Amino acid sequence: MSVLDPLAARYATWLGLPAEETALPEASPEEIRAMPVILRLEKAEPPSRTALLEAAAIAALAVCLDERARPGGEWHEPVHDWVSGHIRKVARRARGAHWVAAQEFPGVTVSVGGAEVRALVPGRVVDVPKEISRLQISGSDLPADEPGPAPDDLPLLLLNPEVAMTVGKAAAQVGHGTMILASLLGDDELTAWAERGYGCAVRTATVAQWKQLHPGDDPAAAWRERRVVAVRDAGFTEVDPGTVTVLAQWR
């Protein structure tokens, strides 16, 4: 049994919902849960955008599949409760002493190409510690870079080429992508991915590539035939409800 099972069970239904229903809150305001995702953005030496997004995609999944999130583990209940509703993430930026302080809270830090991200164990938004809640959400952005072709042997996360997102928003979306992907994999595939540290490649799709891979109205066939899943946003920030922000492909 995986903590991601509720996500797998909801996947096809979620894609088929009318756009306005994807934005409906699933809990009262005081019970809304989210995963804090802390992006290290040092002023003097900011990371590349692609590396930061890849670190964010890995970190979110690493928390969910950590042994402490398994049944009986100390993280299982908060992770399970979060995955069972909207998988909200709140990306915040930190540097210097604030980044160091964030390491004291339960979670996983991932480094990719000099970029660092720490995903924390999710919980109720009203309970977020002040050391985390004071970290800024807005203003988290980095210039586009040119990472080159994606490796053929890594799962691929494609950003929607026609939807503008800040790096904070994109970080949350690629984290959704790895989680949905992992929820649909078999045990052997998941074990093999874990042995590679849940490595993945993040790229912006071309318009043609997006149209070719998009699940359309048949997500089951897209997964069966092309091993592709879509991240469909609830529209709480930056994008309209129902927007497909990321396509994730198992390769």
Automatic annotation (TrEMBL):
Pfam families: PTH2
Keyword terms of this UniProt record: Hydrolase
Domain of life per record: Bacteria
Catalytic activity, as annotated: an N-acyl-L-alpha-aminoacyl-tRNA + H2O = an N-acyl-L-amino acid + a tRNA + H(+)
Known EC number: 3.1.1.29
Parts forming coiled coils: none
Keyword Transcription part of the UniProt annotation: no
UniProt-recorded name of the protein: peptidyl-tRNA hydrolase
Species in which this protein is naturally found: Amycolatopsis deserti
